[in-house]
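call fold(seq) -> C-alpha cells
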Amino acid sequence: MISSYEKLKVADQNKSNDVVFEVNWNKHDESTKDCKLVRITVGGKSAIIKKEDLISFLFIIGKEDEQRNLIPQQITRSRGYTTVVTVKAKHDIKEGDDVTFPLELTLPDVKQEVIKSV
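ret:
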C-alpha cells in the first residue's frame, strides 16, 4: 500500500481536461492517510471519495475476469508425505519381530496471498 503522497494524471478521452487522482495529500489529517480517501480533480473542481466506493465502482463495471483480479485470494497448498515405518520390537512382542505400519504426515501449509487469479 502507498503511504506517501501520490498524484496520478490520467488523460481525458475528450482531450478537454486532465483527470487527477491524489491519495495521502494531507499528512496531518488522519482521514486522508493510508489511502482511505481519494481526491479526484477534473477541470479545476475536486471531489473526495472513499477508496472503498471507488473499488466498488470499478468492481461493478468490470468484466468477470477483471472482477476476479480485484478480489484478494489466499491460496493454500498442503503437502503430504507418506512412508512406511519399521520398528524392531523389544517388549510385549516376540523379540526380533518387525512391526511395519504406514505413516502419513501433513507438512505445514504454504500460504500465499494473491491479488489476481492464478
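The chain has a mean pLDDT of 83.
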